[in-house]
Amino acid sequence: MNRATMKSEITKRVALLIGDLASVFTRMKRYNFVGEDIACNLCGDHSHDIVGTHDRYGNTLRVVICTNCGLVFLNPMPSDAEVDLFYTRYYRKLYHYTCEPRPKSILRAFRGAKTRFVFLQPILSHKTRLLDVGSGGGEAVYYFRERGIEADGIEPNEGYARYSKEKYDIPAYISRWQDAEIDHETYDVVTAHHVVEHLHSPFESLTTFREWLVPGGYLYISVPNVHDPDSTPFGRFHFAHLYYFNRETLIMMALKAGFEVSDKLPGHSTTIVFRRTETPSVDWFRFPGNYVNMAQFFKENTNVKYFLSRKPYIRWVRRMSHLGGDILKATFWDGKS
Ligand SMILES: [Zn+2]
Asked: What predicted TM-score, i.e. pTM, was given to this entire model?
C-alpha cells in the first residue's frame, strides 16, 4: 500500500469512526408518523391497556397490550406506507449515515451468522434450500453458502441488497416480503432474524413465509423478548419495533399461521424454530393466562425497581466495553470474515 492509498484509507476509517459515534445521537430522534388505531394482529380484539408512553429516548410512543391474548404493540400503529417510507428513506441512514452496512455492523452480522449456523445445524443438510428474510448486507447468506447451504436473501433496502450482491455475489431479492415473487414450496428453511418485530403485519408475514416453505419445512424466528426480567424497563420500547412478543404470543401466532414448535429444535425464549403443519391450528389460543401474566410483569418491573438493583450498573460497564471494542475492531478490520 503506498502512502497516498494509506492516507485515504486512514481518512475513510476515521470518517467511519466519527459516523459511528454520531449515530449514537441521531438515533434518538423520533420518526414522526400519524399512524392508525388497529385491532390486535394475533387475536383481532380491540381492547387494550397502555403499557408504555415513551420510547427509550424519551420520545412519545404509545404502546399497548391486548387484554385478550397479551400481544404488545404500538397503537396508533404506523400505516403500511409510513413503515415503508421509514425503511426506504430513514432507517439505515438514521442508524449509520449510509445506505451500505458499516464495518461494525458487518462484524456483528458475521458473528450472528456463525451463531445462527451452529444453532440451526440439526435441521440443515447440504441439500437445504434456505431463504433469509431481511438479509441486510448479505453476511448470513454468504456465510451459509460458504458452508454448502443453498441460501438466498430477501431485503427491501436497495442499498443493502445491492451491496450484498456486489460484495458477496449472493442471490438476493430486492423486495418487501409482500411483493416478492417467490414460488410456493420453494424453500426447506426460512429464517427471520430480528425482522418480525419490525413488520406492520406479522401474522400475514408468517402465512406468506409458510407458502414459500415445502410441507414440513422449518421457519426460524428470533425477536427480542419483551418478557425478559433482565431487560431495562425504560429501554423496552422503540418506534422501529412495532410488535413486542414473548414466547407465548410468538408461539400462538405461529400456530394460527400453520406451524408447530419443532420437536427437533424448539429453541429458547423468543428464538424458536417452527415446522410447517398441514393446516393452520384452530386451537391456537394455548396460553389464555398470558395477558394477566404480562400485565403483572409490567406492573412489577418498573424503572424505580430496576435502578435500585445492581443490574443497570453492571450492564452499562459490560455494554460500553463491548461497544468500544467493536468500534475499534471494526475501524482497523479488513472487512472479511
Ligand atoms: Zn390479542
From this structure: 0.84
